[in-house]
Structures are given as C-alpha cells and as structure tokens.
C-alpha cells in the first residue's frame, strides 16, 4: 500500500490529564487503514514530536497485521510524508 496521506483525529480534549483517544488513518489510492489508539495529553512532557510518535506507533501496529508481517503487502509513503514518518519501514 502506497500511503499518500496520514490523517489524525482526536487525541485532544479539555481534560489536562489522562490518555486521549483518537485514530490514525493511512490513506492510499482506494485503500484506508484506520488504527484506533490512545496518546498522552498534549500537556505531556513528551509533547514535542507528539504527532510523529503517534504516527510511528500506528505504523508499527499496521506492520504487525498478517498481510504486512508475511510480506504479502508492503507499506510505502509519498515523498511529502517522509519527514513525518522517517525512513521507509519497508526498507528495514
């Protein structure tokens, strides 16, 4: 699956403490994988890079799905997403 867009929804709220629910969607041409997860509040000490960490965790979960784990499917990313996702997970 070649990911062309990454969409984050949720992960915020008025409460200053506790885990925040949300979803990360990896969107490709004709495909969408949505991962439900929780993240620390934005006031967390690890706020810096929060978006990148959330996306990295979602990618890790996608790569554990059977079709990716067995190599039947590969995950790649559009060039404009490289800064957010880091090295191509399929390369390593």
Automatic annotation (TrEMBL):
Annotated region Disordered: where?
Answer: 1-21
- Superkingdom of the organism of origin: Bacteria
Recorded protein name is: Uncharacterized protein
Organism, by scientific name, is Salipiger mucosus DSM 16094
């Amino acid at each position: 699956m070649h990911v062309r867009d990454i969409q984050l929804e949720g992960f915020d709220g008025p409460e200053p403490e506790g885990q925040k629910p949300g979803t990360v969607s990896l969107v490709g041409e004709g495909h969408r994988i949505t991962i439900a997860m929780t993240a620390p509040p934005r006031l967390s000490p690890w706020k810096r890079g929060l978006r990148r960490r959330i996306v990295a965790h979602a990618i890790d979960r996608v790569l554990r799905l059977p079709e990716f784990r067995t190599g039947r499917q590969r995950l790649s990313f559009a060039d404009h997403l490289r800064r957010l996702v880091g090295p191509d997970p399929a390369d390593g």
